[in-house]
Design goal:
single chain; alpha/beta; Arc Repressor Mutant, subunit A; Rossmann fold; 2 domains; five-stranded parallel β-sheet; 13 helices; globular
């Protein structure tokens, strides 16, 4: 298993039952995993958008006497790392290296494929299959829906918010949908949390790809598979969530008996139309 800062924090937090506020703090620490052992309680509170006493209660919930004890623990378990090696990379290279680490962590998560296989079965069985992603996550949802439509008979992309979002979820449910796939990335729109709560109340099973197991959508997901985003640049990078989306596509295809036939049919039509440049 990886000894990455994010992996260590995930393991520490996942063994405890946390409140929504505490999950928010945990999520902020995972996103800033390399810096977490050196953040003051005030800095962490500002980062998570909570009060300083909430940070103290969070540390106590994890079994520590207070936040200083938690921070000491994180410093003690942090692997010795060569700062000179870090300094050898410029800021762009550091962002790439961070994404490589995110992909490595995703690979380790997929060593047990049970969650992905379950997700594939749920997505394949849902007719239609609504795919939700708003704002930063809209490109992930759109990419999944584009490829999924080649093998799944009815994919419905939900990439726009507003008052009609609930209507479209209702329409999918009435048409026979049994599951909804959501891509949820920072910053998490309130609309996504509300949409997932509504989808579950309508009877849909929610499968979510999120940047952390402690993301705000966790409490409204039946199956959440995390894939971290990179935070080293001005805007987050999402290589791991994109790759996880393709992995879910593969798992879904495995449970669609006519997936290969549909792909071959599409290729034949595309060739007949001269759709692609050879």
């Amino acid at each position: 298993m990886s000894d990455s800062p994010a992996a260590r924090l995930q393991q520490l937090f996942e063994s405890h039952r946390l409140t929504p506020t505490q999950r928010r703090i945990a999520h902020s620490m995972v996103r800033r995993a390399a810096d977490a052992p050196f953040l003051s309680s005030v800095e962490l509170a500002e980062l998570a958008g909570v009060s300083q006493p909430s940070v103290t209660r969070f540390a106590v919930a994890l079994g520590f006497d207070g936040y200083p004890a938690l921070r000491r623990h994180l410093r003690e378990v942090a692997p010795a790392e060569s700062e000179a090696g870090k300094d050898a990379y410029n800021e762009y290279q550091q962002a790439v290296q961070a994404e490589i680490e995110n992909l490595r962590h995703l690979s380790e998560l997929l060593a047990d494929p049970a969650a992905v296989e379950r997700a594939g079965r749920l997505l394949a069985a849902s007719r239609p299959l609504p795919v939700l992603g708003l704002r930063a996550a809209s490109s992930q949802a759109r990419g999944f829906a584009y490829f999924a439509a080649k093998v799944h008979p009815d994919v419905r992309l939900l990439d726009e918010g507003g008052t009609m979002l609930a209507d479209r979820i209702d329409a999918a449910r009435r048409a026979g949908a049994s599951a909804l796939l959501c891509f949820a990335l920072p910053r998490h729109p309130k609309e996504v949390v509300e949409a997932l709560a509504y989808a579950r109340s309508a009877g849909l099973t929610v499968v979510t790809v999120a940047d952390s197991a402690f993301a705000p959508v966790a409490g409204h997901s039946d199956l959440l598979i995390p894939a971290a985003v990179g935070t080293g640049l001005a805007f987050d990078t999402a290589c791991a969530p994109m790759l996880l989306g393709r992995v879910l596509l593969e798992a879904m295809c495995d449970d669609l008996p006519d997936a290969q036939a549909r792909l071959e049919e599409f290729d034949a039509r595309a060739a007949a139309r001269g759709l692609f440049v050879e």
